[in-house]
Every structure is written in C-alpha cells, then in structure tokens.
Design a protein that fits this description.
The chain is of the alpha/beta class. Helix content is about 40%, strand content about 25%. The protein is built from ten helices and eight strands.
Amino acid sequence: MLVAWILSLLNPAPLRLRRRGYVRESGLLHARARRCRGAWAPHLARARAAVTGAVAACGRRRLAVVLGSGLLDDVPLHALAAAFDAVHLVDAVHPWPTRIAVWAHPNVVLATAEISAGLADEVLRAACAGADLVVSANLLSQLPILPVDAYEARGGEAPPRLGSDIVAAHLAALDAVAARGARVCLITDTVQREEDRAGRVTDTLDLLHGVPLPAPAAAWDWEIAPFGEAARHRRLIHRVHAYPDWGAARGQG
C-alpha cells in the first residue's frame, strides 16, 4: 500500500480526476503490476501480440489511438510508433513510466480524458476521429468500477443497469468507429474465477455485467492475483478475449 500511495502522489493528473479516484486506482494498478510481474507476463505478451497483429493488418497507417493506455505493459508502443505517423495515448492518468517511454517517440501524444461512461460515447468518438487503428486493451471491464464505487462511497447503491450500460456504451462506440472504416482491436477480461489450492472454483464474477460478446479470435487465462496477493489460499484468474478485428467479429467486416 505504501508503494501505491507514493505512486499516487507522484503521478500527475488534473485535480478533478484525482478527486474521483483515478490517480489512486492508477497507483494501485502500478503497484500490483510490479508485485505480479511474473504471473502477468504471459497475459501481457499475448495482449501485445494481438495488438501487433492488428497493426500488421492495417492498410492505412496515419493515426493509431490507444484507449486506456495506462502503464503500456500491454501496448507495443515501439511497434505502434514505428508503423503510424501519429499515436495518441488516451487515459485519465499517464503515470511516469509512460511519460518517460513517450520521450523516445516524437510522434506519440498523451491525451488526458476520463475513462468512464463519458469516454464511451461522444468523447471516445472525438478521440478516435480520423484514426486508422483504435486499441481498447484491458479497459472494458474497468470502466464501471469507479462510477459504481462512487454510489457506494456515498452510502447508496448503484442503479442496477449502470455497469451493463457503461460496458454496452463503450462497445457501441467501438462499433461506430469500426463502421467508419477504422480497424478496432479489443482485448478485455470477461469473467473472474476464484480458485483454491486444489484447483476448485470457489466463486465467479461476470466482469462485463451480463453484456455478451461474440466468439473471440483468441482467448486465454490471466492470473491476475496469484496465491498470497488477494488471499493466502485463493487466487483470481480472469478469462481474456481478444478481437484484433472487432468490426469483423461484430459482422461489420
């Protein structure tokens, strides 16, 4: 927790986003990524490979947009910067490792935007205007977290469809981007399962709040919390779906 707190202090962000919890969440994610580096490595490699495949399939390479760029662990920044005239990294918080990585690429731009229901519609479409490739990597399941938590922090209960509406809105925006001719690469975790040391599933959680997805081009498990991270005798595993061509998966190709 101390590392997460220090990272939260160091990461620059507008005050309004800091108050809404985005900087704190970024610090927690950064700290967990450091602790779970080995367990996460296979997932991150497959996510980067999916994005690289989408890059190779792009005919026009003027602008690439990465939504929820975060720490860039799942984003092949060098490949994107080499392939496209410009790359825009869109997130609520751009931590220092990302800012340092960008210095080596003059064609990469940081764009600060709130990753929430707002980004799922008009803000997202504006950010993606003119893009030839749009990447949404390991973002979709994260979108409802802070909006839902905000209700609970006030002692209330979130509207029953808030989570599913946010997920559906993001997918609808990606549909619209794909319909305009951009290639969309979507990578998202879908279901969380909790396992004990005997391999028994003790609990499951639908990370997309009931919103269905088409069959993925690739799928794999991500050990997001190894034994000892969340609980001594429990580990958390997320099922990940990858769509290097989201438009084709939705029947738009």
